[in-house]
Each structure stands twice: as C-alpha cells, then as structure tokens.
Amino acid sequence: MVRILAFFVGLGFVAALIFSIIVTPFASTEESVTEEFHKQPKTLALASDGPFGRYDKQQLQRGMQVYNEVCSACHSLNLVNFYSLEGLGYNEAQIKAYAASHEVPGLDPDTGEPTTRPGLPSDHFPAPYANEIAARSANNNALPPDLSLITKAREGGAPYVYSLLTGYTAVPADLPAENRPGTGLHYNPYFANLNLAMAPPLTSEGQVTYAPGNPKPTVDQMAKDVSAFLVWTAEPKLESRHAIGWAALAFLLIFTVLTYLSYRQIWAEKKGK
Amino acid sequence: MSFPWAEEYKPKSAMMQWMDDRLPLPRLVYGAIGAGYPVPRNLNYFWNFGVLAGLALTIQIVTGIVLSMHYAANADIAFASVEHIMRDVNSGWMLRYMHMNGASFFFIVVYIHMFRGLYYGSYKAPREMVWLLGVVIFLLMMATGFMGYVLPWGQMSFWGAQVITGFFSAIPLVGEPIRELLLGGFAPDNAALNRFFSLHYLLPFVIAGVIILHIWALHIPGSNNPTGVEVKTESDTVPFHPYYTAKDGFGVGIFLIAFVVMTFFAPNFLGHPDNYIPANPLSTPAHIVPEWYYLPFYAILKSFTGNFLWIDAKLWGVIAMFASILILFFLPWLDNSPVRSAKYRPTYRMFFWILVADVLVLGYLGQAHVTSWVVLMSQICTMYYFAHFLIIVPIVSRIEKTLPMPNSITEAVLSGEADEARPIGVAPTNPAHPDPVKA
Amino acid sequence: MTEAVSEDEGAVPDVRRRDFLNIAAVTFAGVGAGAVVIPLVNQMNPSADVLAEASIDVDISAIESGQSIKTSWRKQPVFIRNLTAKEIAEANKVPMSELRDPETLADRTKPGKENWLVTLGVCTHLGCVPLGAAEGEDKGPYGGYFCPCHGSAYDTAARIRKGPAPLNLVVPPYEFGTDTKVTIG
Predict the structure, then answer these.
(1) Per-residue confidence at C55, pLDDT binned at 50, 70, 90?
(2) Can you give the pTM of this predicted structure?
(3) What is the domain-level CATH number for residue C81?
(4) Measured between alpha carbons, how far is C165 from A4 in angstroms, rounded to an integer?
(5) pLDDT tens digit string along A115-147?
(6) How many contacts does B have with C, using Cβ atoms within 8 A?
(7) Does residue B2 carry a pLDDT above 50?
(8) Closest to A109 in 3D by CA, of C57, C182, C129, C80
(9) Are residues C172 and C106 in the same domain?
C-alpha cells in the first residue's frame, strides 16, 4: 500500500518537473557585457598568506599610514580599537599618542553638548561621517563601506582590494554606451559592475611619505601596503591562529598514531579466531 | 536486550557495588558503550561516523555555550558582538571558528552516516526506529543550523532568514500570517533574532535527547554490519570496549586532524564573504546561497518553475523541498528487499551510487548562478531524487536478483582473511574489516 | 581488559607493550582534553576591550573643601574627596593601634596633596557602594563613609573603623596631572 501510494506521489513530482521543463523557455546564456569586461583579481603575495603566514609589521605600519592619510577621508574602520595596534608592533606610549591624535565624539562635561575629545586607547577609529546619510550626501549618494572586514567581506579578499586600487584604466573603446561610467563614476574592470563611485585614491608616487628605510611609496607599493593592513584589520588574530593550529596538529598527529597502534594491538588478538 | 552472551556488569569495588544497588549508571554505560555491548566484529570505518557525529555535537554544544557568554542577541549589536568575540575575548576567535566549522563537520559526518545507512540497509527491519529517529535528528539539525547562521546578523544571515521564512508564505491562505508569526514582524528583526537565538540554544539539547533514544533503539536489535547478515553466534561479535572504543579513538584522531586543518588554516573556506557585511534590510546580496549543507535541498526548491495542476510553482518547490526529507521517513517500507547490504544487491548498489552523484550534483547546482542549463539540470536531478526513493527503490526491491550471502558474519570474516592472503590486489589489511564493496 | 591472550607472541612483553600503547593513547587524550579546557575557561577572563579602559582623567577644580564627587573607573565607583582641615586633623589624631588596617592619611594621599583623598567606592566587605560621598548622605559615626548594607563605618581617611569590612577603602593608582586634574589608573 505504501509503495503504491509512493509510486503515485513519485509520478506526481516527476510530472510537475516535466511540466516545469516544458513551460520554462530555454535561453542559451550569452556572456553579459559586464562579465566580458570584468577581470579576476591580480595575484598579490603577502607575508600573511598560507599556513605559515605571519604579518610583516613594517608593511602593516605603512599600510596604516596610507589608510590614515588617504582612505580615512571617506572610509571608517569602525571595528578596530586603538589598543589592538600593538599587533602592528607599537608600544603602549605610541598607541596612546596615536589615539590622542584622533578626535573622537564625546560630550562636553559641563553642558552635555556633543563635542569631540582626543582619543584614548580604548576608543575605536573615529568614522569620517556621523552616519550613513551624512556619508551618502558627501559622496554623491554612494556609501563608502567600512573597511574593518573588507578583505573578508569581498570575494577575492586582499588581492581584490589591491586590484581595485591599482586597476583604474581608461574606458575601453569597445565598451557599450550603457556600460560607460556616468557622472561621478570611474571605470575599473575589477569591480563587479565595472563602474565605481570611488575616484582613484592612489594616484601618484610619494602621495604618502614613508619613513626612511621603507620601500619607495609607489602607487603599487602603497596599494600593497594598505591591502596588507586591511588583512590585519579583518583578521588580527591570524598569527596566533596559525601558531595554535600547528601545535594542535602536531599533538593530534602523535595522538592519532598512538590510537592507531593501540587499535591494531587490540585487534591483533582477534586474528584467526 | 542485546545478546545472551553479552558480558554482565560486575562492580569492581564495594563503592561501585553500593552505587550499582542505588543508581546503576555505570551498568548502563557498560551495557551501552562498554564491554557489555556485543557488536558485529566486521564493522568497517563507515561505522565510526556515529561516534564522530556525537563528538561533533559535543564540540558544538561546548563552544556554543561559551560563545553565548559573549554574544548579544540584539539586531543593533549582534554583528559587533560577534566581532567583539573575534577581536577582544580571550581565545574568542578560536571558539567562534570552531563553532562555525564544527557545524560543517557535523553535517559532513552525518551525511556520511546517513549514506552508510542507505548503502548497508541499516534502515530496514528491525532497525526502522533507529532510522526514523535519525531523520528526526537530521531535521532538528537543519533547523538548528539555520537559526545559528542567522545569529551573526550579517547579510547572508538576514537574507537567509528572509528567504527561509518565505517558504511558509507559499502556504495558501494562512501562509503570510504564519510567516509574520514566525518572524514576529514583517521582516527579520530583533524579535526574530531573539527567538532564533533562544531556539538555537534549546534545540541542540533536544537533539542530544533524541540521540539517546536513537542509541537506545539501536541497542534493541544491535548494530547492523557490512554484510547485513544478522548476528548468530558469539563468534560473530566482539565487545564494544575495547575493540570499537579503540577503533573510534583512531577515528576521532583523523576527524580532529581534519577539523583543526579547516578551523585554523581555512576557517572561512566554507563560509560566505557576504556574511562579513552587517545585515542591511534595504539591499539584497547579488547571489544568495545557503550554507553548503542545505544546497541540494535549495536546488530542489528552485527546480519547480511551472504552475502544475492547481498548485503554483512556489508551493511546488516548498512542498518538494520538505518532501525530499520527509520521504526518508517512509524508506523502511518503500524498500522491502529481504537483503540489507548493497554488497549483495548489485542493482540497488548501482542506483545508490547514482543517488550519491545526484545529490552531489544538486549541491553544486544549489550554489550555481541560475542559467537555463542549471535549471534544467536541477530539474533532471530532482526528478531522479524523487524517482529513486518513490519509484526505483520499491521496484528494484521487488524484482532484483540478489547475490548469495554468507551464512554468518564469521564466515564472511574468514573469507576476508583468505582474501588477505592473496599477494596482489586491493586486499583488506585487517581481517575484521573486509572491503565493503568487494567480497 | 580482555581475557583473550595472544598466542603467537610472548605473553609477558606483549602485555607490557600493549599496556604501554593503550596508556599512552589514553594519556594523550586526557592531556588534549585538558588543553582544550584552558581556552574554554580563559574566555571568561576580562577581554581586551575591558582591560583597555585603563585610565580616566578627572577635573577636580570644582570640588570645594569638604565636598566630594563620585566618578567611575573600570566600571567601579571612585570617590574623590577634598578633606577639610578638621577632617585631616581627625584622621591624623587616631593612634595606629586603634585601626584594623593600620595606615596613616599620608600613606593614602600624595605628598603635598593631603587634602585629596581618592578611593574606590567599593566597601571591602561585600562590595556595596558606601554612603557619604554625595551631599546629605550619612557619613557614619566616624565622619567618613558608611556602608548601609552591613554597617561598616569608615573614618575621614576612609579607613575601616567599625563593622564587618576587613580593610580600608582601596586607593587606586592615580597621579596629579596638574593641580586640578587627576589621572586614575
């Protein structure tokens, strides 16, 4: 009885699917224009890549400098606290001074009016705009995304960020009119729909002055450095993750070998019985 | 229960005797997973996955309880509280990544466990109840996993909640009110997040309870085995402890190695970048996909595109998606072949492997960009999925000519040993574990 | 563990080797489980953001002699009190032998700033906030602070004089930035 019923239920599903196939017009898909011009991210090798990856702290410090002097004009870093900058190799006094160089929102202790005060290590990086509306109105209705997690929140990760920063090109001659950048937009083949509201942020060598002993601040170098910094902001615990991972793995390998030997030993007695 | 030759629990000390007279918990454990549980001696590595599923649930419960000490179920700060765990809480990143990847590992292990049951006929009499309770566990896991994925309140969390509760709106007349009831509003927000958190915390304990019933039901007839032949004599079995505790210990080692590799070196590999963007009710991500373990069902949902009979396409999809799991409840009665193991059922075995491939392809299609080819393929694969359980298996179980079976487990094991003696070929290395597919 | 004795190997060394392997495997499992407990417990310790709330600056220019204010440091109340000459004299008059937790007022203040008494507002008995810092509150029998929960009374140097509390109110680490600014922490 169950089987007869099941047979008809099964036929019902199959019929509904056959009907679906019949009524759905089959359109052979052509590559859309955006797909044709869209490029996959360039390769970017960072010290933090791979299972042995560690951060290049000098590079992170340079990247933070680029963020500070260029990106922070529009992009927030809401999830990052000043105290966590010790991960970049800064000491407590440096962090205190660095935090104090930022103005964060506060309250006037006498009047209760909103005002600003120098930052403390426990503060987050202050956002450039008070809220989303302010950010949109200042940016031609585009919202500059928060960068704290950007390398984890975008397909392609850090290489994508690096490619985007260095990928602005002239509009190709064969690009159809409807895909050409409108006012306030900029052509960038690494961006999913090709036209990006962000103007090229890194434009000339020496836009940021690196401390002596660092590589030349070419556009490419600055883009790499800020991408590396944004990997750190998204995953500040990467180094301990790798270290603990290896320790756990070493332990488990020994454990597994022991359990295997013990298992064989116990079963050896059953042989031939 | 179990077999007459099962080892009886004997308290080793006066204190244990005292305990045994008052609360025979050690006796219960001894009989359940100790030397007092005789188990077929020929179980292969696929039988490790029950214990591994239990371990995965334990990992989820332990890390989950700890994470809930820091998580805040409020739509305004849920996302930030997860990042607080990742950045500020001592070892928080580790606990969170373990919980994230632990969910995936739980499903991997359970899927293998289920397919093992399908291959070796573990759902057949007298183990129907074991199978039914297993399907209940699977359903509870899916609900728990979904609600857990909503908690970080990223873009995928939000839109996952929107889409999944949208299933209910397919129900005629009462659908929309039911959806509003589930969400506590018209779109996912604080009310939904809070109730999902509450249920996400509750359901794992319900799962643990059903697992106890699952094991209880298993212990009445005892474990199935790769031959599917019932245990006949004492020589067919070994005590669970130390034989299978040792083997499971090894399995646990392998499982944990895989788990550590994923958790510490590729923690976001199975996740989706969009869930690192805070929920935004005004903007849907370009490409919404559920977690990988729901993908085959998601493909089934999407493959119904025509208003067939008086039911519209949306409702067909939702019915089919739920039906694809619910038909598993009827499987013990759909398949009435007297032979359990697919080892001796060549026709069933072929269809079994087609089903495995079908589900894998459905999984791929579930996350693929919707093109006409993808839709067509998922329609064909969905058709096979339902045909397999509702049409093919019942017919095959009637007309199939099965292979001769060994008279007993011991006989199968000994022939396996003869196999081992052969100098070349892929012979089993241990007489207790003959290759499941060969023989 | 099992009654089965291996037949094809020497009984005694075999038993030892087997035992060694099993004990080693079980020991490793135990050590592993122990190692896992560390992060599971350690996650309850104060997190980095809590530890980072290290110091606060307080403007004390508006506190007149005899007045005090309550502020908050690491989510704990802090009393800052501008002692009057009379209160200082009272505190200095008390012989050490009478004190449960002997400390002079000078021990508890900064040199040259003996009138500024900075203490945590946390009763050393069970953690209530003592009265006496705000205008009109009961300062207790010794004119300092009085904890209403279990009746601990503190004198004008915030030293315990009566009641169940064992210790004086704690003086947190602090510095005078300028004459009117105190940095606590």
Answers:
(1) confident
(2) 0.91
(3) 2.102.10.10
(4) 82
(5) 898 898 889 999 999 999 999 999 988 999 999
(6) 42
(7) yes
(8) C57
(9) yes
Q: What is the pLDDT of residue A24?
A: 84
B113-169 pLDDT, tens digit per residue, is 999 999 999 999 899 999 999 999 999 999 999 999 999 999 999 999 999 999 899
- Residues on chain C touching A269 (C-beta within 8 angstroms): 2, 4-6
Position B431 scores a pLDDT of 45
Catalytic residue flag (residue B12): no
Residues of C with CB under 8 A from a CB of A: 1-2, 4-6, 17-18, 21-22, 24-25, 28-29, 31-32, 35, 48-49, 52-55, 59
Q: Which has the minimum average pLDDT: B59-73, B77-91, C87-101?
A: C87-101
Report the CATH architecture of A48-80+124-236: Orthogonal Bundle (1.10)
| CATH number attached to the domain at B287-404 | 1.10.287
Fold topology of B42-272: Cytochrome Bc1 Complex; Chain C (1.20.810)
Q: Provide the greatest CA pair distance for chain B.
A: 73
ipTM: 0.93
Report the residue from A120, A121, A259 with minimal CB separation from C25: A259
B62 and C40 within 8 Å at the Cβ level: the answer is yes
Other Cβ atoms less than 10 A from the Cβ of B401: the count is 7
Q: Work out the average pLDDT over C90-96.
A: 90
- Higher pLDDT: C71 or C16? It is C71
Quick one: C88 and C66 in the same domain? yes
Residues 118 through 177 of chain A touching chain C, CB cutoff 8 Å? 120-122
Chain B residues inside the 8 Å CB shell of A84:
87
Contact call for residues B237 and B231 (beta carbons, < 8 A): yes
Segment (H or E) for B435:
none
Residue type, B377: M
Smallest CA–CA distance, residue A244 to chain C, in Å, is: 11
Our CA-based measurement puts residue B112 at a distance from the nearest CA of chain A, in whole angstroms, of 21
Tokens 């319900």: give the residue: B206
Banded pLDDT at B415 (limits 50, 70, 90) = confident
Query: Residue B134 is which amino acid?
Result: G
List Cβ neighbours of B22 (8 Å cut-off, separation of 6 or more): none
For residue range B245-270, what is the model confidence (pLDDT) as tens digits? 999 999 999 999 999 999 999 999 99
Identify the band that residue C16 occupies on the pLDDT scale cut at 50, 70 and 90. low
Tens-digit pLDDT profile for residues B15-35:
999 999 999 999 999 998 889
Domain boundaries, chain A: 48-80+124-236, 241-267
Boundaries of every domain in chain B: 42-272, 287-404
Give CA–CA dist B363/B381, Å, rounded.
10
Tokens 């315990």 label which residue?
Answer: C160
Number of domains in chain C: 2
Whole-angstrom distance, CA of residue B47 vs CA of residue B111: 13
Question: What residues make up the domain containing C63?
Answer: 50-184
Cβ-contact A9, B390 below 8 angstroms:
yes
Q: What angle do CA C13, C19, C20 make, to 5 degrees?
A: 90
| A203 in contact with chain C, both atoms CB, cutoff 8 A | no
Query: CA of C35, closest CA in chain A: separation in Å?
Result: 10
How many residue contacts between A and C have a Cβ separation below 8 Å? Answer: 52
Which residue in the set B84, B90, B242 is minimally distant from C42, CB to CB? B90
* B371 backbone φψ class: left, alpha, beta (φ>0; ψ -120 to 50): beta
